[in-house]
């Protein structure tokens, strides 16, 4: 069997590694693309893994470009799998696969179709997410579902915590379904398109903290954009300040003053409490641009300071 894998990110690396192990004896061709400037490095590692395992590697963002016409026309493909792939793959490509093309997506489709569903789900305060394996169709994330599994989002989970569980679920699903995808011995179910929701592309600029939001919303933004992402950020005296960690105080004071972004309490070596549009939040670790990470109480050390 000739299997084509379109993948990116560290999750794509982990997926390729597992796929090569369970698919020993099959031929693999892998496509990937370079990281954006703010992303963790993955491209070189994926390329190294593929070549070390004796498979074919190609660099491409758009696999339907004319330079790849010969590959799709002349090189028989049995199965296409897509993992963390963010660029359009048209029907003229995915219909080339004799056994079909299938996508792994980190949401419980039809909810959260589109970009960065894990980040948006945490940002929106969701309590659960999931992984869906579905058949590729022309409409965005709209194909029939092959397998789907729920992943819990804890109240204090960071995006890294959730990504680990999501990735583990990806690997479980491919191990449980690989043989069926090759044999065709599986059932699919259509999505309820009337229940579909969508996400737009996430950019680093979306990490800007609005101190008029509730404390819960600010906390959700911080944990959704923390490492390996660029982080939620604000400004202090025109200096960019990234907030890497925070928590919601268990028994916060009830402030009747309206000064979102104002520092209201400094806890030495613990953090600093900051007012929001509703409630307050304890900032714990922060980082000025170009400087080391520090405890928030070092940077936010005056009750006269206002963020934003």
Describe the model.
It is a single chain. The chain is an alpha/beta fold and 308 residues long. It folds into two domains: 2-199, Rossmann fold (3-Layer(aba) Sandwich), CATH 3.40.50; 204-299, Formyl transferase, C-terminal domain (Methionyl-tRNA Fmet Formyltransferase, Chain A, domain 2). It contains eight helices and 15 strands. The chain has helices at 9-22, 43-52, 69-74, 91-94, 117-123, 159-183, 215-225, 296-299, and strands at 2-7, 27-32, 56-59, 79-83, 101-105, 113-114, 128-135, 145-152, 198-199, 232-236, 239-247, 263-267, 271-275, 280-288, 294-295. It has a seven-stranded mixed sheet. Strands 10, 11, 12, 13, 14 and 15 form a six-stranded antiparallel sheet that branches. It has a two-stranded parallel ribbon with strand order 6-9. Helix 1 runs parallel beside helix 2 (43-52), helix 1 packs parallel to helix 6 and helix 5 (117-123) runs antiparallel to helix 7.
Encode the helix/strand succession as letters.
EHEHEHEHEEHEEHEHEEEEEEH
End-to-end Cα distance: 56 Å
Poorly predicted runs: none
Largest sheet: 7 strands, mixed
Query: Shape from CA axes?
Result: elongated
CATH topology of the largest domain: Rossmann fold
| Arrangement of strands in the largest sheet | 3-2-1-4-5-7-8
Provide a count of the helices: 8
Number of strands: 15
> Which structural class do the helices and strands define?
alpha/beta
The average pLDDT is: 96
The CATH architecture of the largest domain comes to: 3-Layer(aba) Sandwich
CATH class of the largest domain: Alpha Beta
Q: Helical amount among residues, as a percent range?
A: 25-40%
Q: Which strand-content bin applies to the residues? A: 25-35%
Oligomer: single chain
**Total number of distinct structural domains:** 2
Task: Provide the CATH superfamily of the largest domain.
Answer: Formyl transferase, N-terminal domain
| Rg (C-alpha, Å) | 22 Å
């Amino acid at each position: 069997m000739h299997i084509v894998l379109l993948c990116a990110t560290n999750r794509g690396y982990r997926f390729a590694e597992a796929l090569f192990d369970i698919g020993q004896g099959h031929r693999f061709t892998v496509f990937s693309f370079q990281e954006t400037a703010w992303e963790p490095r993955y491209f070189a590692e994926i390329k190294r893994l593929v070549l070390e395992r004796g498979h074919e590697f190609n660099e491409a963002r758009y696999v339907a470009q004319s330079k790849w016409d010969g590959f799709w026309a002349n090189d028989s493909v049995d199965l296409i799998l897509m993992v963390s792939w963010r660029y359009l793959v048209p029907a003229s490509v995915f219909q080339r696969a004799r056994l079909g093309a299938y996508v792994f997506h980190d949401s419980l489709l039809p909810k959260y179709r589109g970009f960065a569903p894990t980040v948006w789900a945490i940002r929106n305060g969701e309590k659960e997410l999931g992984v869906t394996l579905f058949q590729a169709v022309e409409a965005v994330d709209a194909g029939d579902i092959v397998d789907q599994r729920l992943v819990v989002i804890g109240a204090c989970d960071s995006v890294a915590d959730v990504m680990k569980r999501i990735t583990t679920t990806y690997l479980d699903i491919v191990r449980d379904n690989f043989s069926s995808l090759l044999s065709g011995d599986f059932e699919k179910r259509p999505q309820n398109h009337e229940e579909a929701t969508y996400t737009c592309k996430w950019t680093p600029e979306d990490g800007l903290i609005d101190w008029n939001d509730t404390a819960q919303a600010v906390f959700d933004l911080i944990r959704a954009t923390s490492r390996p992402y660029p982080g939620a950020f604000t400004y202090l005296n025109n200096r960019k300040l990234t907030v890497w960690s925070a928590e919601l105080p268990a028994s916060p004071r009830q402030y009747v003053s309206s000064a979102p972004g104002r520092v209201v309490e400094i806890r030495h070596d613990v953090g600093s409490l900051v007012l929001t549009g509703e409630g307050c939040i304890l900032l714990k670790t922060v980082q000025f641009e170009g400087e080391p990470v520090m405890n928030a109480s070092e940077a936010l050390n005056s009750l006269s300071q206002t963020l934003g």
